[in-house]
Every structure is written in C-alpha cells, then in structure tokens.
Amino acid sequence: MSAAEQLNAGNTFEFAKPTPIASVSLRDAEISIGPILPEDTGPMFLWMNDVAAANLDFAYRPVDWMAFKAWSEELSRSSTATLFAIRKVSQLKPIGFVLFKNIQAVHRSAELGIRIGDESERSKGYGRAATALALLYAWNHLNLKRVHLQVFAHNARALRAYRAGGFIEEGRLRQAAFIDGKWADIVLMASLNPAG
Ligand SMILES: CC(C)(COP(=O)(O)OP(=O)(O)OC[C@H]1O[C@@H](n2cnc3c(N)ncnc32)[C@H](O)[C@@H]1OP(=O)(O)O)[C@@H](O)C(=O)NCCC(=O)NCCS
Question: Could you tell me which of 130, 57, 59, 143 has the C-alpha nearest to residue 88?
C-alpha cells in the first residue's frame, strides 16, 4: 500500500528512519557515504563483475574472489585510498560505492571513482549526491586541493552526474581505450577546492 493509500485508509504512515550507520556517516537528506560493513562484500563483489557497468568504466576482466579479497585487504591498509559504501539513509543495504585512490599528500590531489550498483537505482540523483558528498569529504577531511576523474566520452549519464556534482571538463584523450570492440575517447574532469 502506498503512503497516500495508507493515509486515506486512516492508517498511521511510518516515515523511513535513518539507519544507525547512515546517521553517523556523511549524509544529505537521501543518501550517506560511510564505512563498508562485512555484509557489503557480496554486493561489491557482484558489482565488480558486472560486464555492462564495466563497459562504462574500464576494460572488463572478471575479478575472482581471491583477487577481490586481496584488493579489499590491501585497500583497507592503504593510506592512499579510501572506500565508502553509498546507502540510502533509511536502508542498510548499500546501493553503490565511492573510491578515492592515488591520494597524494604533496599535491593534495586524488582520483575519484563512483558506482551506483544496480540499474534500478541509477538516474535517481544518487550519483550526483554521492559526488557532492565525496567532494565535501575531500575538502573538509582529506584537505585536498584537487579531485580528478576519467570518464568515457560516450557515458553521457556519468558526465551529467559528475558535472552536477561539482566537476568540470579539462580535456579529452582521443581513442584512449578499447571497450567492447570499439575505441573510446576519455574525458578528463576535475574539481578544485573552493577554499584553495
Ligand atoms: C555514473 C553513475 C555513478 C551516475 O549516477 P546516477 O545516480 O545514475 O546519476 P544521477 O541520477 O545523479 O545523474 C544522472 C544525470 O544524467 C542524466 N541521465 C540519465 N540517464 C541518461 C542517459 N541515458 N543519457 C544522458 N543523460 C542521462 C540525468 O537526467 C541526470 O542529469 P541531471 O542531473 O542534469 O538531470 C551511475 O549511473 C553508475 O554507476 N553507472 C554505471 C557505471 C558507470 O557509468 N560508471 C562511471 C564510470 S566513470
């Protein structure tokens, strides 16, 4: 029964409550970015092996469980990378992840990657919101000056989400990647800390 139907039927409508993990994480009204929990490992593993999404992100190679485990253990020890789960504030199950890598102390820069895991959760504004939260984390907690990323030129949705989240385009690498049988241009995007 929808919320409107419940109200019309005289029932009390229960608003979704924030999960504890979302309420202690960086968040806006709808989503949070926070620590990975043990139960997030399954979805993360499946997302990394999603061929259709990989074609929008990097050259596809299956990631087996041993490689995934080694990658995640190395990541958790790394001082130059940080991984967040993206959650709706009312739901514990993750909907995607944010990854900072190549965090450079001297240059105060890092590279950002964002994935919304399931197609059913994409195009709802969560990617844009996660990008904006990631930049706040970069400026206010990592004290970075510059965050950059690369996106395939044919990935119109990602370009729009990153623009809306605070990135601007800086250039294009022509025919720089071979993806699913075709050459793709790569667009370079970056965001600079407004406080310098
Ligand atoms: C890229 C990604 C993170 C964006 O997150 P998202 O939650 O889907 O994006 P948002 O809903 O926040 O924003 C999408 C924008 O693209 C627009 N859009 C949606 N579908 C589109 C399409 N097929 N073509 C062009 N624009 C589209 C939306 O209108 C929105 O723009 P607006 O805010 O100006 O209206 C997410 O889609 C994703 O993980 N995709 C799979 C993998 C991928 O593409 N990774 C990118 C690697 S760089």
Answer: 130
User: In a mutational test of the pocket of ligand 1, which residue from 33, 160, 167 has the highest number of ligand atoms less than 8 Å from its CB?
Assistant: 160
- pLDDT value, residue 58: 87
Nearest protein CA to atom 47 of ligand 1, as residue: 57
Query: Residue of the nearest CA to atom 48 in ligand 1?
Result: 151
d(CA 138, CA 97): 15
Overall pTM > 0.90: yes
From the CB of 158, is ligand 1 less than 6 Å away? yes
Predicted confidence (pLDDT) per residue in 137-155, tens digit? 999 999 999 999 999 999 9
Interatomic CA distance for residues 144 and 36, integer angstroms: 22
**194 lies in some domain:** no
Question: Is residue 50, in this structure, part of any structural domain at all?
Answer: yes
Indicate which CATH number applies to the domain containing 129. 3.40.630.30
Kindly give the distance from the C-alpha atom of residue 154 to the centroid of ligand 1, in angstroms, as a whole number: 12
Domain extent, residue 54, equals 16-146
For 71-88, write each residue's pLDDT tens digit: 999 999 999 999 999 999
156 lines ligand 1 (CB under 6 A): yes
In 3D, which of 75, 82, 80, 84 has the Cα closest to residue 102?
80
pLDDT at 164: 97
